[in-house]
Write a structure and sequence with these properties.
The protein has 21 helices and eight strands. By secondary structure, the protein is an alpha/beta fold. The chain has three domains: 3-85, Four Helix Bundle (Hemerythrin (Met), subunit A); 100-293, P-loop containing nucleotide triphosphate hydrolases (Rossmann fold, 3-Layer(aba) Sandwich); 301-445, Orthogonal Bundle (434 Repressor (Amino-terminal Domain)).
């Protein structure tokens, strides 16, 4: 995501780093490259020009030319302005109704139906909601079935009417059904089209008037770039939607939609889809996205994902085991399972500052832990609990059972042993002192 834009922005800032003296001329040259990078990312020339003009005015106003570290100050200004361009701060979804009704709109192929499933799963898990998915796409043959499959996967009820081809009546009946059966959230999946047409716009406008939703969201495929922005503009004229959902941000996208859609329609981006799995949905934070674009990672989101998966009580128990040198392969296996629940491995790694660039072009399989898991599953209970008993004959048996080589088994046991020593050291007094020193050093290095 945004890898090409990140590279070009980094390259533009090198113009400042290589200069003995910062002048208005080389600041202008840097911003010319920034503007070019934005246009290449499918941001309109008008927006890119206004953006760099604002950055230049702020840079000169903050005396970048005479600053101790002008390059860093310049990056900070660009970072802050990128965040503002994308909305400034996160805007939450309104789910206060009883039931709260969310109307989903967008073109065919934008990922509306999948988003409905993702949103239902997220709000069920994080907000304690009891969602009802409503199938109002009566034109696409597989749409209702797709929604039912998604509902089954996340254990959420789906309302549909096979003999009714009137989406307005279906949506009204669904809300009555929700009240009767205790659903406090209704998510309505509507029909998409291959292009904007009057019939479609009238239909979804009528649904909105009939159900009066708390939220109307416009789902857009970010891979379509500037076309996505133009489509959003047309939809907004009719629907006056409340927020935007950008899907497929894990693809080879240039990022123009994310960067310009807020500017064009003056509506916040509320969610981003970052993969095909049903948990690959995130709230949109403009400042965090800006950090990622500039190669600074997104440590806050990484920590939040970890906190969602790791139980505090279990963490305390684990720390005691590590301190007593009792951490075993069963514990290691549990940690692997929790990490896998956090999402795509490459996406997680890219949240670490500097890792996004390092991982470019490297394919990290989601089954990266498969070999490790196979080896651990081939161990007996005693072997997992007490790795010290893993002698040569046991290792050969484990290799046969896991479909791996003895060398791979040996490497895992060696790495596990080294990791266990490091973990024990980090939980001791010296380790805590070292962590404090590292944290202080990281803080100082990241100051602008």
């Amino acid at each position: 995501m945004f890898s090409n834009l990140s590279e070009k922005l980094e390259s533009s800032f090198k113009l400042l780093k290589g200069q003995n003296k910062i002048t208005e001329i080389n600041v202008a040259e840097t911003l010319k490259e920034v503007r070019r990078a934005l246009v290449d990312a499918d941001v309109s020339f008008k927006i890119a020009k206004e953006f760099t003009k604002t950055v230049q005015e702020k840079a000169l106003g903050l005396n970048v030319l005479t600053a101790l570290k002008p390059g860093q100050l310049m990056i900070k200004i660009v970072r802050d302005e990128l965040a503002q361009l994308m909305g400034g701060e996160r805007v939450d979804i309104n789910i206060k109704g009883d039931p709260a009704v969310i109307l989903i709109s967008g073109l065919q192929g934008s990922g509306k139906t999948t988003f409905c499933g993702k949103l239902a799963k997220m709000l069920k898990a994080k907000k304690g909601k009891n969602p009802l998915l409503v199938a109002c796409d009566v034109y696409r043959p597989a749409a209702i079935e797709q929604l039912k499959v998604l509902g089954e996967q996340i254990n959420v009820s789906v309302y549909s009417e096979e003999d009714n081809k009137n989406p307005v009546k279906i949506s009204k009946n669904a809300i009555a059904h929700a009240r009767k059966f205790g659903h406090n959230l209704v998510i309505i999946d509507t029909a998409g089209r291959l292009a904007i047409d009057e019939i479609m716009m009238t239909e979804i406008s009528n649904i909105k008037k009939a159900v009066k939703p708390e939220e109307t969201l416009f789902v857009v495929d970010s891979m379509t770039g500037q076309d996505a922005v133009n489509t959003a503009k047309e939809f907004n004229k009719i629907l006056n939607f409340d927020g935007v959902v950008l899907t497929k941000l894990d693809g080879d996208t240039r990022g123009g939609a994310a960067l310009s859609i807020k500017y064009i329609v003056n509506k916040p981006i509320k969610f981003i889809g970052t993969g095909e799995k049903l948990d690959a949905l995130d709230y949109f934070y403009p400042d965090r996205m800006s950090d990622r674009i500039l190669g600074m990672g997104d440590v806050i989101s990484l920590v939040e994902r970890a906190q969602e998966q790791f139980d505090e009580e279990e963490a305390r128990k684990l720390q005691k085991k590590i301190h007593k040198d009792q951490f075993n392969f069963n514990d290691f296996l549990t940690q692997i399972q929790q990490i896998k629940k956090m999402g795509n491995i490459k996406d997680l790694a890219a949240m670490i500052p500097g890792m996004g660039k390092a991982l470019k072009g490297i394919d990290i399989d989601d089954d990266a832990f498969k070999g490790i898991e196979a080896i651990i599953y081939s161990m007996t209970f005693d072997e997992k609990e007490n790795p010290k008993i893993l002698n040569g004959s046991r290792r050969r048996r484990i290799a046969r059972g896991s479909g791996t080589s003895v060398q791979e088994v040996n490497n895992l046991i060696k790495q596990f042993s080294q990791m266990r020593k490091m973990m024990k050291m980090m939980t001791g007094k010296k380790g805590k002192k070292m962590q404090r020193m590292m944290n202080n050093s990281m803080f100082q290095n990241n100051k602008y």
